[in-house]
Amino acid sequence: MTHREGFRPSSRGMSRRQFGLTAGAALMSPSLVTAARADTYPSRPITIVVPAAAGGPSDTIGRSAAVRLQQKFNQTVIVENKGGASGNLGAASAAKAEPDGYTLVVLLAPLAQNIAIYRDPGFSLEKDFTPLAHMASVDLVIAARKNLPINTLDEFLAYTKANPGKISCGSQSPPQMQYLMRTTGIDMTVAPYKGSSLITNDLIGGQIDVGLVPYSDIAQHIAAGTVKVLFTNGPKRVRQLPDVMAVGERFPGFYFWSWYGIAAPARTPAPIVARLRTELIEVAKSPDFVAFVSKLGLASVDEPGKFNEVIGAEIAQWKRLVDELQLPRI
Fold it and tell me: How far apart are CA 95 and CA 92, in angstroms?
């Protein structure tokens, strides 16, 4: 008996019940297929894209979330750093990923600013992502190389006005510095960076004069005396730096903070989104994670489930500022 001959009788002999089960499986509705996939999720490694260089707060948040999700899911969770274009490159790649729950992304405040500043950032925060959880936030500071002959906000303003364009400033978000310069009436030469850790390294090495960095990324270097903080970039003083003036004290209404959260590509199946959101919110509220982010100089989040509101408010603020300050589109 040949293989072909053996196959035919089996095919013709299929019972009506067997045929019905086979046809039913073939015609299974998309919703049932999605539910079946969600029941087995995750069945393979998950990747968390970090749209910044390794070593900064967004990388730290991504890696700490990866460790905890790996423990919860008993599945490998990989962190992939994709810096460049103020985070646009990494965010754009995540936006184009298959919406199956196996690619997540760390979203951070500069990405919301980019939506208003860049003509074509390569993604839309509102259309291309499903926010899962707001994980942490942090105050931003203007730090300086240790031998720069200024130490306070007032000295910084006087020095930059006396030396227009001569101060070099590193920033992961150049538009923030444009806003600062317009608000304060100063002029600096701003250099874009792929990550805050790179700014810190160049401050320590003396390659740049000042830089906009998260307090968490610079805290240990402040304590070591290798860099110094001139002022904070928010409306009020930072709890950890009570003697350092906030720029909002001189210019009411001016503020910037940075936040970090995790999202999935839009159209990720609702059951998978629900599970990821539940697990990440639990992580953000857990005592060990709260203690971890506090040790880093970050602030924990009271309502991590409202990440979509945080993103929406940041986008709205930047769209308003672009119009009010007539900031150039990039």
Answer: 5
